[in-house]
Amino acid sequence: MRDRSGPTNGISIVGAWLVLVLLLLASIGAGQLFHGAPWLPFAIAAIVWVKGTLIARYFIEANHAHPFIQWALRVFIAFVPAFLLLTAWLGERLARWTTL
Amino acid sequence: MGLNDTLALGAGTGHGLLLHPGLPAPDTSSAHRRIPGNKGIWVGITCVFVEFAVLFTVYFIARAHFPEAFEAGHTQLSLMAGTAITMLLLTSSLFIALSVNAIRSGDRRTSIAWLIGGLMLALGYPLVKYLEFRWNLAHGIRGDSGIFFTVYYYLTLTHLAHGFWGILGILWVLTRNIVGAYDASEYSGLEALASYWHVTDMIWLIIFSLCYVLV
User: Fold this and answer.
1) Are residues B143 and B203 in the same domain?
2) Is A18 inside a domain boundary?
3) Which residues from A are below 8 Å from B209, CB to CB?
């Protein structure tokens, strides 16, 4: 009998997919219901980060990967949420800094 | 202790590390040095990360300069098309992850079946995107309709190009899987494609949040 276990098994992959679908629906709902709310960018930033982390952890199996891959994924996944928070807090200042 | 009690780490390159419960914990420095797929694909994926980091930076700078244009722009896009693409890519990614899981267990037929399912869903992406762009043009949404739409088109078209590469990759590994190139001891090509496709999926989730949901 062959070994059916692995770094990530089928059930946890399907579970991660279900959570990703729920987060997709949550982000659409939040965008529609709370459009313009000052806290919305923070909520979306958190959702984007969780989605990226789930894909890295359960689909790419980053927790078993080489440290360079782990760090590349961590930095990329944190990049957009960090920029979202930066624009929400310091949008006007960012515009001034980037004016030619 | 049966093989089912064994946790296999490091498979995919023929150099899997087998860990038995009860044995001393492994040297984490070696257990955590696995490369999903192969080095080449991760060089490519790192380049994709840099490419999209630059594109997202442009998005945020444009948004900081023209918040009203971004506020007004996203409401004109088809949320249904964006949601459909997200579901297609997420589910395609799931099927390809299950394909890797199946080949890891030595079940090549199931692996091929999941790959075909993943390919069918992946092909839905350019189809829905084509319909969305047609809908956009019918509603006067073009690349020169404003800063938001310029950013939206370059982000989504660049992503679509990566989607095409991924679809070609799925076709390639599907063919190799059918001719028996992969088994439980060597499936690095399939896993490399899976890594690329998961990253493509991850980037779409970000684009969806930035262009269709948030602002």
Assistant:
1) yes
2) yes
3) 27, 44, 47-48, 80
